Amino acid sequence: MTNRILVTGGAGFIGSHYVRTLLGAHGPGDVGVTVLDKLTYAGNPANLDAVRDSAGFAFEQGDICDAPLVDRLVAQHDQIVHFAAETHVDRSITGADPFVQTNVVGTQILLDAALRHGIGTFVHISTDEVYGSVDHACPETDPLHPSSPYSASKAASDLLVLSYHRTHGLDTRVLRCTNNFGHHQFPEKVIPLFITNLLQGRKVPLYGDGLNVREWLHIDDHVRGIELVRTQGRAGEIYNIGGGTELTNRELTQRLLTACGVGWEMVDFVPDRKGHDRRYSVDFTKIRTELAYRPAKDFDTALAETVAWYHANRAWWEPLRAHDLAVA
Ligand code: NAD
């Protein structure tokens, strides 16, 4: 077996897609994957059903803040791909504590264990939100201006990861991605929230004037980018990654209404989110030129596929709707 990879947060949206893709792409015995996941409201063991019986797969329910557990697991692995986080901005506004615990303290506990056990590569999944609200596509060298407790906790974890490279020489690689979308996303973030509301005949809540701009990245493209960075990236580097489609939330809403066959009468304009960033945007020239990354998914086709998936998989998301908040 060449690599034994510890994947934190592997029962969530992006992490589970990463694990399914990795184990699907390698022959039995080529790669070993252990998922460490606390199974918060956002973690769903069913997301891993497709790989549960794969050779080399193991699942451990646990918290990345549990230092003895992390120490034991890290000792058995060569690499770490770190997705585990509290991820919903609205929840961080109503309560920041789990964000600081998991995103900052949990990351530090993982880094310390990685150092102790000589982990070969530590891939950290960050976000474009660390740059804050911007009027240009940010290169990796831009300063960090996070606005929400969520993005501040992610910025803190980024800086910790980078410090373990600079101070200790740990091989760390940071990816800062734009908004992801696709199947198996918990229905609290804007795309799955709007689709599932519309499928249930409920209105969708659009924040403020709806002119906030986000860049969209399909999970297939993101997971391909993560693999490029894990296998061919450089130690100590940051790689922005995007999908190339920037839309206002109004434009996104129009597409979702059309895809679900309804009109603007299904939209409630609700008061803006506190501290709502106007625009996120990254310049991903570096990953294009160094690692030949290109987003391959056409946005409209991928959005239609996503709507079709939620339509066909009501049994997956209907029990989760009890948890929904407002728009991500
Ligand atoms: P998610 O909310 O779907 O999943 C997070 C997972 O982490 C869940 O399975 C949860 O159970 C697990 N988890 C939470 N706290 C934990 C802890 N203390 N110990 C162990 N496991 C814990 O998140 P996602 O959308 O898949 O995001 C994955 C990563 O990508 C996060 O680091 C997030 O900040 C980053 N990211 C996501 C997006 C996006 O659009 N979804 C955009 C940019 C960056």
Category by helix and strand content:
alpha/beta
Beta-strand content estimate: 15-25%
Q: What is the assembly state of the chains in this entry?
A: single chain
Q: Count structural domains.
A: 2
Terminal CA distance reads 40 Å
Along the chain, the helix and strand elements come as EHEEHEHHEHEEHEEHEEHEHHH
By CATH reckoning, the class of the largest domain would read Alpha Beta
Report the total helices.
Answer: 11
Largest sheet, spatial ordering of strands? 3-2-1-4-5-6-10
- Looking at the structure, what is the overall shape? globular
Low-confidence stretches: none
Q: Taking Cα atoms only, what radius of gyration do you get, to the nearest Å?
A: 19 Å
Strand count, sense and barrel status of the largest sheet are: 7 strands, parallel
Describe the 3D structure:
The longest helix has 20 residues, at 97-116. The mean pLDDT is 95. By secondary structure, the chain is an alpha/beta fold. It has helices at 13-25, 67-74, 89-94, 97-116, 149-168, 190-199, 219-232, 249-259, 285-291, 299-312, 314-317; strands at 3-8, 31-37, 57-61, 79-82, 121-127, 172-177, 179-181, 204-207, 213-218, 237-241, 245-248, 267-270. It has eleven helices and twelve strands. Helix 4 (97-116) packs parallel to helix 5 (149-168) and helix 6 (190-199) packs parallel to helix 8. The chain has two domains: 3-180 and 218-241, NAD(P)-binding Rossmann-like Domain (Rossmann fold, 3-Layer(aba) Sandwich); 187-214 and 245-279 and 298-319, UDP-galactose 4-epimerase, domain 1 (Alpha-Beta Complex). The strands form three sheets. Strands 3-2-1-4-5-6-10 form a seven-stranded parallel beta sheet, sandwiched between helices. It has a three-stranded mixed beta sheet with strand order 7-9-11. The chain has a two-stranded parallel sheet with strand order 8-12. The chain binds nicotinamide-adenine-dinucleotide. Nicotinamide-adenine-dinucleotide (NAD) binds at residues 8-9, 11-15, 36-40, 42-43, 63-65, 83-87, 102, 106, 125, 127, 154, 177, 179-180, 186.
